[in-house]
Amino acid sequence: MTKQKLLVPAAICLLAIALSIILISSESTDDAGNSASQAGNIAGAISANASSLQETESKTKHEREDPSAAIARRNLEKEFDEILPAQFPGQFSSICDVALKSDESLILGGFKTSKGNYEFTEVKVIPSEAGNGENQYLISVQSLILTPEKSAEIGFDTLVSPARTRIQKSLIVNSQDIDLSGDGVPSTLSIPPMVTNANSPATCSINYPGCGYAVSTMVSPQGDGESVRLRTRIEIP
Hints:
By secondary structure, this protein is α+β, with helices and mostly antiparallel strands. Helices cover 36% and strands 33% of the residues. Strands 2, 3, 4, 5, 6 and 7 form a six-stranded antiparallel sheet that branches. A hairpin with a 5-residue loop joins strand 9 (211-221) and strand 10 (227-235). Residues 1-8 and 45-63 have low confidence and may be disordered.
């Protein structure tokens, strides 16, 4: 009788322990499920934010590209390909299109040489008296090799390009403002002026020992009577 009385409380205790274990296990499972659900929600939020950020970056990059400028650039390149045929097909070339007065010079370039200097090209257009200043022009071309210090001194450092570009950087200056005196001018090379008709391509070559390039030009009269449209292509074989 005494043993039976002792067994009953023991059984009740065991049952209580078992129920406690079951409840704890159930709560743990629920907590794990909630944690997993929360983790999934967080992951979803991160993914959504990442997608939104990616979309914003893509849109920003797309907005950097000006469609109208890209079209104008392609049209300009096409025009140059038609009117100034490349002398060195498949090789690097750059183009420029400006309005130029007779007392102005067009400065092109900024190409870095093997010695660390910069090579610029000066182009000047003068109406030819033989052509009554309307149908013929004299085009003078000069190659200028300047040190980085000299380039900065006379303001040509803005033309220096970190890489070769299809659209040429250019600077229009008064011909008398180019000061090549003093140090920092390793060499200059001029060629005799070319005589060209209006709207006709003309090409000259600049040749240094071991290197060189070609300059193609076309001059068209402007309606104002004071300037001409000068289109150039620099080609490096």
